[in-house]
Amino acid sequence: QQQVKQSPQSLIVQKGGISIINCAYENTAFDYFPWYQQFPGKGPALLIAIRPDVSEKKEGRFTISFNKSAKQFSLHIMDSQPGDSATYFCAASGNTGTASKLTFGTGTRLQVTL
Amino acid sequence: DTGVSQDPRHKITKRGQNVTFRCDPISEHNRLYWYRQTLGQGPEFLTYFQNEAQLEKSRLLSDRFSAERPKGSFSTLEIQRTEQGDSAMYLCASSLQGSTGNTIYFGEGSWLTVV
Prior knowledge:
- The structure holds two protein chains of two kinds.
- Chain A is mostly beta strands.
- Chain A has strands at residues 4-7, 10-14, 19-25, 33-38, 45-50, 56-59, 62-67, 72-77, 86-92, 103-104, 108-113.
- Helices cover 0% and strands 52% of the residues of chain A.
- In chain B, the strands form two sheets. In chain B, strands 2, 4, 5, 6, 9, 10 and 11 form a seven-stranded mixed β-sheet that branches. Chain B has a four-stranded antiparallel β-sheet with strand order 1-3-8-7, with no helix packed on it.
């Protein structure tokens, strides 16, 4: 049972462009939605996260948009740079008891070209 | 500021052998998680501890897998009688219960190759 669906599987964006990755979730108990960035051979690193009480959160070039009614959230990377080339995972968790574990999407491989 | 530390980073073992991975979480974190990640997939939850108590185990965690966190600090993940299907990266993560957003920090992972 895939509780967090992520798209696209891969994405190629030119330097300076906007990268957009989308996720949808099913479990209404989820109340924390982080995005992780992973480089080859490394562990996932937390990029940015949002709670459902806000519809948008921005940190530098990274923005999460959240639509609670649609159970969807997305990551926007503005002014994409070659150094952003990595795999991005959305995730979701609850914050009570065993629901605190993260459920991940399947990942989006981003390539930013010159 | 030390992050989550995992050892060894890489392990090659023959099928049928036992392997053990160690994880040292961020020092003040009371929650510790183990995940498994195969190529091209997102991390999959295996188990988690709050202090020394193992609170949940995934159905992915067969009887050949055992995890411990004896004093609520470091943790070990042992795989007995390894199979080729166990080849994956084993990720440890930690968090502080009650922290804003339950932020979970991952280590660099331990790669297992079963030949």
